[in-house]
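Slide 14.
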Amino acid sequence: MTSPRAPMRTVAAGTLLWSPHEPQKVLFIVKAGSVRIYRISPEGRRVTLAVLGPGALFGEMELIGQRMGEGFAEAQEPSVLCLISEYDVRTMLLSDTRIVTRIVTGLGRRLAEVEQRLADTVLKTAPQRVAAVLCRLAAAAPESGLFAQRGSHIRLTHEQLAELVGTTRETATKLLGELRGAGLVTLRRGEIVVLDVEGLRAVAEQWDYGRPRPSRHGGD
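Slide 15: predicted structure.
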């Protein structure tokens, strides 16, 4: 989804890409790397809302209903982004229905994931929410969702994970320790390595760490 007028921008980790204090009518498309979307609480704490990976879009573009509100966007790692103006978005929407489909699909997927996270917050325990988020991050899922699919190596701090699941850093660290003890993940500095996606999915679906999981073919 690029055009001759859509410049590519390579940024370093930690680069602030979007701020509500300096809004701009431009659409960003993540081509490589990942971008963290966050807000700042009244106490001044950064709260992670999403981690976007290749194929995801963000920015302020009323034409397609894309808004950032009070959100900030920061490169989570060295990243490559494509910047598209409102004029180019309008031109592409009128000239290529495939682009319309990709944009609508991406926005729809993000809305569905927001709804799922809200439901998880109400219906799932903290261990289940942690396991569910790690599953989404590790799974080979479609592009353009709320989470950057990183494979088994997830670049995420304990604090950022806590923000994503709605718990404290201390609780997230404790739960990650339990998952590591169960052989489901291993922990490295600034990184979580998933060893058993199916095991995490079982935890997310209310199975205890030490309880035997049902086989793929049914039964106890």
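Speaker note: The helical segments are 86-95, 97-123, 126-138, 158-165, 169-181, 197-204.
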